[in-house]
Amino acid sequence: MTIRVLLVDDQVMVREGFTVLLNAQPDIEVVGEAVNGRQAVERGAALRPDVVLMDIRMPELNGIEATRRIVAGDDPPRVLVLTTFDLDEYVYQALRAGASGFLLKDASARQLADGVRVVAAGDALLAPTVTRRLISEFARHGAPLSPPADVRVGELTERETQVLTLIAHGLSNAEIADRLRVAESTIKTHVSRVLVKLGLRDRTQAAIFAYEARLVSPS
């Protein structure tokens, strides 16, 4: 199945470069471009992409608000934030708005393509070292997800809590399965149950929840 991508960035060279790199992949197709957040919302609704590559700092409507509007729709696409990260203090706001992860603008062609595939598959694109730093920003600035995390965590079984904690550390399903010595399919089931029980959209929100519930401490 071909992954349909909408590119959103106000810089022509970024859009053109990413378009060339992604269209070179046999399973990815760039179906449209947008130069600002407002256009992204409109074209996202019209084109129905699987993944939106979203810049944050843009004219008219920034990527944070555009992400919030896009994911609020019916059967929304996954949003992958484009950022310079070290210089961009707004990444955590974009993730809270509903983005499924982030990708550095200087990513290689392979990293770009793999990032699109990971997000399209429903996973969160969060490297372990960056996850801790990112969640630290949530702890300092973000309002907790509601209802309170410390109340909702009691709904999880012991094994589900283990899985949630490992998600927050940035481990993939395969890595969690190896750590807990169970089949990867079993971990996928646990992850699905965790998301349903806690009313969370994806692994990104699960990681945020784990830090807010004090299951993991930022470092």
UniProtKB/TrEMBL annotation:
<feature type="domain" description="Response regulatory">
    <location>
        <begin position="4"/>
        <end position="120"/>
    </location>
</feature>
<keyword id="KW-0238">DNA-binding</keyword>
<dbReference type="Pfam" id="PF00072">
    <property type="entry name" value="Response_reg"/>
</dbReference>
<keyword id="KW-0804">Transcription</keyword>
<dbReference type="InterPro" id="IPR058245">
    <property type="entry name" value="NreC/VraR/RcsB-like_REC"/>
</dbReference>
<feature type="modified residue" description="4-aspartylphosphate">
    <location>
        <position position="55"/>
    </location>
</feature>
<protein>
    <submittedName>
        <fullName>Response regulator transcription factor</fullName>
    </submittedName>
</protein>
<dbReference type="InterPro" id="IPR016032">
    <property type="entry name" value="Sig_transdc_resp-reg_C-effctor"/>
</dbReference>
<dbReference type="InterPro" id="IPR039420">
    <property type="entry name" value="WalR-like"/>
</dbReference>
<dbReference type="InterPro" id="IPR001789">
    <property type="entry name" value="Sig_transdc_resp-reg_receiver"/>
</dbReference>
<dbReference type="InterPro" id="IPR011006">
    <property type="entry name" value="CheY-like_superfamily"/>
</dbReference>
<keyword id="KW-0597">Phosphoprotein</keyword>
<feature type="domain" description="HTH luxR-type">
    <location>
        <begin position="149"/>
        <end position="214"/>
    </location>
</feature>
<dbReference type="Pfam" id="PF00196">
    <property type="entry name" value="GerE"/>
</dbReference>
<keyword id="KW-0805">Transcription regulation</keyword>
<dbReference type="InterPro" id="IPR000792">
    <property type="entry name" value="Tscrpt_reg_LuxR_C"/>
</dbReference>
